[in-house]
Design a protein that fits this description.
mainly alpha, 78 residues, 0% strand
Length: 78
């Protein structure tokens, strides 16, 4: 386990403290869960961005392949 020091803005800290008290959970456990949740969220965002970029890269190529298939189909049925 890593030990770290962090600075939170006062309103963020105050809200976290209220929630921790209501959940009857340690501050450490709460922050660990929050960081883990945010890490999963960011991984999904990065994956979505990567998928979007890769889809854009293959879009033109896919259209060319589709046109070739249509041309072949036209030749077969002529």
């Amino acid at each position: 386990m890593k030990i770290l020091s962090l600075k939170l803005q006062e309103p963020v800290f105050a809200e976290a403290e209220k929630i921790v008290a209501r959940l009857k959970k340690s501050r450490n456990a709460y922050i660990n869960e929050a960081v883990e949740f945010y890490n999963r969220y960011q991984k999904r965002q990065l994956l979505a961005k990567q998928l979007e970029e890769e889809s854009r890269l293959v879009a033109d190529n896919s259209m060319e392949v589709l046109k070739e298939f249509e041309a072949l189909e036209d030749e077969i049925f002529e």
